[in-house]
């Protein structure tokens, strides 16, 4: 499975293969492109990456050839584009003080404005699930918006928090990286009445959050990467800590591996044992790594502050042998039992063939790899 990583200013694409490379693995840089301003967030739809590029609005990049990514076009929104989400051919832009812009991206090179939704404070991040958008509103918390008709978005409900930097959406729950407020867990099963059900105080600031099964990963400015158990959303607790080499700005996870934007590096972290995350390797980036997104075997990194770019890395080659599920360097029946248990429980690593769905094809693919060994 791969995703894209984006850092402010540029996008980097990485790919990772399925052999163990150890602590010193360096994901290879495949390509890079300059989207005119810092890519603060990136999402991927098919072979197109959409970057929220601050004062340049949203930029569409063709990554079908990751060694030669090409800017297709953009839509220069008023204000500052800091967050982006995509649902099919519809792109949603968290556009700072201008609220949310909703665009028709049927032609990514010629995006058209469908509507604007005015938020109660600057819109900082956005996630879309079905017909509902979850908007992180800086200093004012979370707004839940009906986008079933993208030409006429309507507020469903809202809740105030300290200061939203990032969002992750689970089953009926939204996890908020709330800056100095730490991690917030909000029940949105009734979108008209979101309710705070849990929180976790931290010693620094929470910049970014990503789902990892019944855990969330929280990138912080002083405490590194926190692995937080949210199996009981009312009582989240820190299960493991990865001490990053600098400020952890962003994180994305797949295949029991997290890719973390840390200063001017991209760090790969093994999450096979969530209580003891360990570094698998790292790669240098052009500038500060401000956003990270995975897509298949690729990692897109938005970098910026001084040099703006989107870099593309391949990370799959640094993922430990997929058949050695318990990471003990021996492929045996315990690995098969561990994988099958996770697959049956719906864990994200059960999607072995990285097609976005948990099916019997994943079991067949794992057992084929298991029969070959490492």
Keywords:
374 residues, 30 strands, globular, 2 helices, Methylamine Dehydrogenase, Chain H, mainly beta, four-stranded antiparallel β-sheet, 2 domains, disordered N terminus, six-stranded mixed β-sheet
Number of strands: 30
The CATH architecture of the largest domain can be given as: 7 Propeller
- At the fourth level of CATH, the homologous superfamily of the largest domain is YVTN repeat-like/Quinoprotein amine dehydrogenase
Figure out the total of helices.
2
CATH class of the largest domain: Mainly Beta
Structural class: mainly beta
Shape: globular
- Please bin the fraction of helical residues: under 10%
Tell me what portion of residues adopts beta-strand conformation: over 45%
Question: What is the rounded distance between the termini?
Answer: 19 Å
Low-confidence stretches: 1-23
Overall mean confidence score, pLDDT: 87
Largest sheet: 6 strands, mixed
What is the fold named in CATH at topology level of the largest domain?
Answer: Methylamine Dehydrogenase, Chain H
Tell me the count of domains.
2
What is Rg? 19 Å
